[in-house]
Design goal:
The complex is a heterodimer of chains A (906) and B (85).
Chain A: H1 38-49, E1 53-58, H2 64-70, E2 81-84, H3 111-125, E3 131-136, H4 143-155, E4 158-165, H5 172-179, E5 184-187, H6 193-204, H7 210-220, H8 224-236, E6 240-243, E7 246-249, H9 258-267, H10 272-284, H11 289-293, H12 298-306, E8 310-315, E9 318-323, H13 326-335, H14 338-355, H15 360-372, H16 379-391, H17 395-407, H18 411-424, H19 428-441, H20 445-461, H21 466-477, H22 484-499, H23 509-516, H24 520-536, H25 540-556, H26 562-578, H27 582-599, H28 602-619, H29 622-639, H30 642-658, H31 662-675, H32 684-697, H33 701-718, H34 721-733, H35 737-749, H36 754-768, H37 771-784, H38 787-803, H39 807-821, H40 830-833, H41 835-838, H42 843-853, H43 858-865, H44 869-883, H45 888-895, H46 899-905
Parallel strand pairs in A: 1-4, 1-5, 2-3, 3-4
Antiparallel strand pairs in A: 6-7, 8-9
Chain B: H1 15-21, H2 24-34, H3 39-46, H4 53-68
The chains are: A mainly alpha (906), B mainly alpha (85).
Chain lengths: 906, 85
Amino acid sequence: MGPWHGRTLPARTPAVPGVRSSTVVGGRANQEALVGRSEELDFAVRSLAEPGGVVLMGAAGVGKTRLARELLPGRGDGAHVWVSGTASARDVPFGAFAHLLPALDQPGVDRLGVMMLARRTVLRHGGPGPGMLVVDDAHLLDDASATLAHQLVRSRALKVVVTVRSGESAPDAVVALWKDGWLGCLDLQPLDRVALEELVTGLLGGRIDPLAVARIWDQTRGNALFCNELVRAAVAADVLIREHDVWRWRGNLPGSGRIWDLIDARLAELNASEVEALEVVAVADRADMALVDALVDPPARRALERRGLLDEQRIGKRSVLTLRHPLFGEAVRARMTPSRLTHLCGQLADAAEERGLDSGAELLRVARWRLQDAGRGEPGLFAAAARRALSGFDPVLAERFAREASALGGGFAADLTWATSLGAQGEVAQAETIFERLRRDATKDSDRAKVAAQWSEMVFLNGGRAADAAALVDQVARGLGAGRTRDELRLLQASWAWLSGDWRELDRADEWVAVAERSQRMAMLVAYAIAPMLVVAGRTAEALRWLDRTVAAAAQLREALPTVELTLRATRAYALWSAGRLTEHLAYCEREWRAAVEAGELDPAAVFGFSRAGSLTDIGRVNTAIGALREALALFEELGTPMYVCWSLAFLARALALHGDAAAARETLELADRARPAQIRLMEPDLGEAAVWVLVAEGDLSAARELSLGLADRNAASGARAAAARALHDVARLGDPKAAAHRLLELGRHTDAAVIGVFAAHAAALVSADGPELAVAGQRFEELGCILWAAEAWTSAAAAFESGGREASARSAHARAGALLARCEGAQTPALSEIAASAALTPRERDVALLAARGCPNREIAQRLVVSVRTIESHLAQTYRKLGINDRAQLAHMLGASPDRERVSR
Amino acid sequence: MTVDASNTSVLGVNRSAALDLLPEVYAWALRLREDGHSNAEIARALGIPPEAGTSTLELAEAKLERLMHRDGGPPQSRARDDSTQ
């Protein structure tokens, strides 16, 4: 753990828009806002506008009653009648309405009389006409109450909302309400994924890690009740915890608590064969339906499907039986006796192995079953499953399998996987004990090489010691004869050496080209080693040619070399970002990130989450970038990868600075500095760039320019031309384009990154204050997706046009800048703050504009400036015309003084 | 990057990806309607009361629109054939 451990980053999380939250932390949640039901609410409200009303039907926990409450007039303050069906009152005539009826102790009052009395009472209580009647859980009504409800609906004297649980039998009078068309009918489905995330965010009162959302979705499938209870239980058990302002899921729920009581209550409704069938499906974990059907009693299966507990699904080409509520699976498995569980696992594993294992997922399932079926698994099965789990970035599962394989005599391969999986969890000391033993006992060169490769990777990734990793590999490589094994180790060594700062390795890159021709595997390893070097050198197009040639093939070698495959994909993202091809970069990273989140793969989720934040920042979407970086940071901390933790902190510092939050940016930069691994240099340029922008946020432009010039010199001297170009462009953006222009032109001749040419053109146009050329630069930035730089270029173009007396062009350029700025999230740079000055606003117009941009209503501005509201309106209209914008939101973006920023910065 | 304009929202979010995000009943309702089935047939196929067929389709369409026009786009759905893993 690094120096950031135990510290909370400055809490500047942007507010989550549109969610009124009540926190579940510390106690029962208050009545939270209705989430994800706007469409249902619209339909129900329209139904209630007609004579009659609406039936809300659906599975248990889907939110019928909650929606019914939302439909009450005045949210329950108005007059209405609420009755509920209950199992206990089901046999009591008028039991649901009993609380409304006076004591009936007169003799001779017959059922009809009671019915009429009840009807009058309800109509009176329902409020001034037409009032509302809610009948909750109408499937549990006694017949008399059902008849009364039916009559009240037919009378059209009340608006009526009825809730009914699907799959349950209901009194005929209730069923007739929708069958005969008396009421509109709405069959509530679970929440969709987006609404679920909104619900959870509201419950927690803050941002939640997408991996945690995926897990909650997986377990609840959008059932609002289960989601509520699951989140509550997880917070209470410290399984959902807040790190760096992001809620994360860590560990497993304890076996007791309200949520399990809820599930137990549902399970208690099942008979013995239904429970057994549920057990089979729960343990089978999406195995092929043919496998499961052989063990499940068909009537029990049908009954469970009717109850809404089982679903038949297509996953690709396969049909599987799944639990509608996966949480039930955990509950069912936890309550099985060990012998029952062992027996079932053995049956499933035997059946699957007899059919033959046809996929990696099947391999993992069978290995899990055999783990439970102690003593009947083969070491080869567990070793293969361990490697498969590692390739899926699940080192915890990999370790379980590898340990078992080793105990069963799996030998070198099993032990190597065991050590690798321990290292991937950050258990460095334990892993090194095994690596050391393997190195000592290895008799073959190939085995020694494998140990060196995995061990050095752990030393680099988890220890942050690139030079030590290179030395480890060198020690073994020197003892090998010429051939593939030595070549592979030398490539690894070059990679670690380069990462530790020996950037001369790029000069040797041409030697490897011939080696790459030997095999697909070798081409991949060569790309792994030299592509990052090419990117740093500004030869991004060349790097992308290497990567595009090997990334697709790398997917096939993922199981053998999972980290190499991920690194190639990550380097591809790095190359796109470095080339300034931000639209492509963001699309690529978003796709990879979302896939990783869905698959629950921490490493790629962290890497691509971090990588996309780079583009988000350069595009100007700094709020989103800050959130993404906090998520990535929490993940990297869990993974124990110092290089990425430092890098994330550096990016976060820059994003916070661009957001205008100087104090938070400075604090984060200091954390990044302390987190810097001593032997890795790759993130140095980005640390420097962050320091520049922190100075900008603190208002010291002169120091920022000087620092950026120094960075450019150092980067250029070490061969990091891409970073040198960024630093020089920053110098131009910060007011000294003359110092940057010719150097950028020179750099452009030695690089092939698309954006460096635009940097040079931008700087040159700034020097000559050439409006048309600045506009061209803006256009080129925009085509690449570099929205923030495009906005700056258009702003400068507007100023240049204004100076040249070209008012129409100036207005057009202002409008373009404003439209681009509106796509940013309040990013603040010196170039952008010149917008107001360059638009030739009068001092009074500027005063009014600044106040309006900060959210002051016109009346308040008028009071402050002691003028009339009409005058304020006139000033604003003039300002909009001069700036080429239409509203206060665009004004706020242009002047970098949005109300959101003010609230976040405090 | 080419985009099939007929199948995407203003923000370029894929309709197919948004469909995958909907609860199964809604997604299937829309797919069956695209295949030309009547509301009654759709309700029968999905196991929902026939009287809820119209409202189900209406809700499905409205939710799909919301997902497609949400800023930032939908997360990728679990639409993986794990037999290929």
